[in-house]
Design brief:
By secondary structure, the chain is α+β, with helices and mostly antiparallel strands. It has one domain: Carbon-nitrogen hydrolase (Nitrilase/N-carbamoyl-D-aminoacid amidohydrolase, 4-Layer Sandwich). Helix content is about 25%, strand content about 30%. It has 5 helices and 17 strands. The strands form 4 sheets. It has a 6-stranded mixed β-sheet. A 6-stranded mixed β-sheet has the order 8-9-10-12-15-16, with helices on one face. A 3-stranded antiparallel β-sheet has the order 11-14-13, with helices on one face. The chain is globular, with a radius of gyration of 18 Å. Pfam families: CN_hydrolase.
Length: about 300
């Protein structure tokens, strides 16, 4: 059986209401399947606008249960097309308890597994701590018919510990649905530094763990509900890296795009034999990693 996995990344804007946005997403998913993709990955919170730019209790009305309407919609799509599908939803777990949750669907439409975002940011225009409770499912890869998926979400991508724990638990590839962009007030040099850092840290996770990596970002400008704020210019740049950090495919910064990549899952074995980082880890000397800071 071939270990080459054709993967599709759906980079899109998310303007409009739920029905409009999900219809556009569904069409992109169908295009991906028609192009031969067996794994399709969507961006963070893809069913609508990035609502975390402000703190407003009314935005909690966007949340839904899992299972719920979106899992029914995307599960049906996965079954109709015979694909494994990675989605990202605003989960209503209980009154007053909400998560930023990735849901992975198997080819028959069933839920293969979920991951609740562990690292929750609280920065200007990214007020996620107001909305999301940190995840409690741990860093557990999700087994599917196309491989074992180490699914993490956005802010998780800055933490090497998260990627490493997914790798140690047997992930075949790392996947990051994402919503990240520029403050329009930043100058071009600062924008370039931020985007380069985002790409570099994730390519580093691929290298350090000998795993391919998929990052899918939103694209386009989204105004803030607060007229005094500048909004967010999501920089797209969705990409796929191989287990040595090599770029296999990359999308643009300013447009919607269906990005296709061929991922050779068998290369991880080859790379790890010549760069045996897991073998040489000094697990007897890393106790300080469980502390906030070494005072």
């Amino acid at each position: 059986m071939s270990q080459t996995l054709r993967t599709a990344l759906v980079q899109q804007t998310a303007f409009g209401d739920y029905a409009t946005v999900t219809a556009a997403t569904g069409e992109r998913i169908r295009q991906a399947a028609a192009a031969g993709a067996r794994l399709v990955v969507l961006q963070e919170l893809h069913t609508g606008p990035y609502f975390c730019q402000t703190e407003a209790t009314g935005q909690f009305d966007r949340a839904e249960t899992i299972p719920g309407p979106s899992t029914e919609l995307f599960g049906s799509l996965a079954a109709d097309l015979g694909i494994v599908l990675v989605t990202s939803l605003f989960e209503r777990r209980a009154p007053g308890l909400y998560h930023n949750t990735a849901v992975v669907f198997e080819r028959d439409g069933s839920i293969a597994g979920t991951y609740r975002k562990m690292h929750i940011p609280d920065d200007p225009a990214f007020y996620e701590k107001f909305y999301f409770t940190p995840g409690d499912l741990g860093f557990t890869p999700i087994r599917t018919s196309v491989g074992t998926l180490g699914v993490l979400v956005c802010w998780d991508q800055w933490y090497p510990e998260a990627a490493r724990l997914m790798a140690l638990a047997g992930a075949d590839l790392l996947i990051y649905p994402t919503a990240i962009g520029w403050d329009p007030a930043d100058d071009d040099a600062e924008k370039q530094r931020q985007r380069d850092a985002w790409i570099t840290v994730q390519r580093g996770h691929a290298v350090a763990n000998g795993l391919p990596l998929v990052a899918v970002n939103r694209v386009g400008f989204e105004p803030s509900p607060d007229e005094r704020a500048g909004g967010i210019d999501f920089w797209g740049t969705s990409f796929v890296a191989g287990p040595q950090g090599e770029l296999l495919a990359q999308a643009g910064t300013d447009r919607e795009e269906l990005l296709l990549a061929e991922i050779d899952l068998g290369r991880s074995e080859t790379v790890r034999r010549i760069w045996p980082f897991l073998r040489d880890r000094r697990i007897d000397a890393y106790q300080g990693l469980s502390r906030r800071f070494l005072d």
